[in-house]
Design goal:
Nucleoside Triphosphate Pyrophosphohydrolase, three-stranded antiparallel sheet, 13 strands, single chain, mainly beta, about 200 residues, eight-stranded mixed sheet
């Protein structure tokens, strides 16, 4: 059983309040869901209802989220357009949505500002130490993530570096610096395409 194209994930059960991490099946809301790898990508299978797809619903301590009136989840995200000599740093995700993305991640921890969160994501995902100061854009986008949200409130930053060194994280299978012309030919995540167009890069 897989989610149909464009199908949203909705919260169908009680939200855990026990300060522990929980992973739920998007179809039957059971915790009988387990990850597995196939062709270098990560998927999830439910032992109760047979759900087999690339998304789950995750809740864990300090998770920052909202539940919208229709039951859909909204997460908070940070991203950064990192530039070096006219090229943009992108990596290809081995986790859903399996597309090229700028450095990005969820902003969850209460004791982190979004600026600290994006600096941490840049170091974790690319091995680069840089601290962007102010977001270029703050807006909400409808776009699904692996952890079950279909909406994200984004803070998008921009930074320039003087070296093209970047290291591959375990969330990606490709990382590189791309010209605008090269980027136009790539399969991009929804926010990456949205923000690069808004910045006039592609």
């Amino acid at each position: 059983m897989r989610l149909s194209e464009g199908q949203t994930v909705k919260v169908k059960g009680k939200i855990p309040q026990d300060n522990s991490a929980h992973s739920y099946c998007p179809e039957c809301w059971s915790e009988c869901i387990q990850p597995y790898a196939a062709e270098g990508r990560e998927y999830y299978r439910c032992g109760r209802c047979g759900y087999d797809d690339s998304r789950l619903i995750a809740f864990y301590p300090q998770m920052r989220y909202r539940i919208l009136p229709d039951g859909e989840l909204l997460h908070y995200s940070v991203g950064a357009v990192i530039e070096w000599e006219g090229k943009i740093l992108l990596f290809h995700r081995r986790l859903f949505p399996f597309r090229y993305t700028v450095v990005a991640g969820h902003w969850d921890l209460d004791d982190e500002t979004p600026e600290i969160a994006i600096a941490r994501e840049i170091e974790e995902e690319a091995g680069i130490e840089v601290r962007p100061e102010d977001p270029v854009f703050v807006e909400t986008l409808e776009e699904p993530c692996r952890r079950g949200a279909d909406f994200h409130e984004w803070r998008l930053y921009r930074a320039t570096v003087d070296q093209n060194t970047a290291t591959l994280s375990d969330e990606a299978d490709i990382i590189g610096w791309y010209t605008p012309d090269e980027i136009r030919g790539l399969d991009l995540t929804i926010p990456t395409e949205h923000f690069l167009k808004k910045l006039g890069i592609i």
